[in-house]
Amino acid sequence: MPTRPDAIYEEVVSPIPLSSVEPRLPAFLAAAFLVSVPVFFQAPLVRSQPWLSLLLSGLLFFSGLQMLRQPQLRLWGDLAIGFTWTWLAGSLYWGWFRWEPILHLPMEAIGLPVVCICLLVNQAKVGSYFYLGSLLGTAITDLYFYWVDLIPYWRRLMAVDPAEIPQVLQAAVQHIQTPAAVERAVILLILLIVLGTLPMSSKKAHWWAFSGAVLSTILVDALFFMASVLA
Question: Residue 229: which residues within 8 A CB-CB, separation 6 or more?
Fold first, then answer.
C-alpha cells in the first residue's frame, strides 16, 4: 500500500503535538516580526547580494526542518518553513524581476502549492497560515497600487539611479494626495483590520499567526509611506 503524504511528514518530524496549550501570542508576535524583517534586512541585502539572499532560503528551510524535530522548537520550525516561501519569493522578485510589477504577486505566491499540500495533510499549519496571511497582505497592498495608478512610479523607481529615488517617491506621494486615493486607502485599511482581527477569536495558534502577518502589513505599509514622505 502506498505511503500517505502525512505519514511521510510524520517520519521526518516528531509526532508530538505542537503544544498542549496553543502558543497564540508567540505565534502572533513572531509572524508580525517576520513580515517586517524583509523591510529592514532583506531589501538592502537582495539589492547588493541577490544570490546570497537566495541561498539563505535554503538555510531557513533546513533550519526549520531541524527545529521541527525538537518538540520545544516546533513552533519556530513551523514558522521558519512558512517564512522560507516569503523569503524565497522576495529574493527572486526583488533580485531579478523587480522592474515588472505585474510579476510581483505571482512570484510572491511561489510557495502556495507547497502550503496547500501541507494544509491538505494537516501539517505545518502555523507556518502555512503565516504565509497565507503575508500573501494576503501583499495582495491588498498591490491592489492599492493598481487602484490608484501607482504602477508607473513603481517602474520608474526600479529604473532610476539611487540619487533620483527621492524625487520619484515624492512624485508618488503627490499623486495619491487626492480624495479618491485617500478613500481607497481607508477602505483597504479597514479590510486589513477586519481580516486581521477576526481570526483572533480562534484559540488556534495558526490563526493568530495569520492575524499577525495580516495586521503587520499595515505597519510595513505605513513605514514605507513615511519613508516616501520624508525622502
Answer: 173
Written as one letter, the residue type at 211 is: S
Cell of 159: 529604473
User: Looking at residue 5, what is its pLDDT?
Assistant: 47
pLDDT on residue 228? 86
- The pTM is what? 0.88
Q: Per the structure block, which three cell numbers stand in for 163?
A: 540619487
Using CA atoms in the order 75, 78, 201, 37, what is the torsion angle rounded to 10 degrees? 100
Q: Comparing C-alpha atoms, which of 146, 126, 137 is closest to residue 193?
A: 137
Q: What angle do CA 229, 190, 205 make, to 5 degrees?
A: 105
CA distance 108 to 89: 5
Dihedral-angle region of residue 230 (phi above 0 means left; psi in -120 to 50 means alpha; beta otherwise): alpha
Q: Residue 217: which of 133, 103, 93, 147 has the closest Cα? A: 133
Cell of 50: 541577490
Evaluate whether 157 touches 169 at the Cβ level (below 8 Å): yes
Point out the residues of the chain with pLDDT beneath 50: 3, 5-20
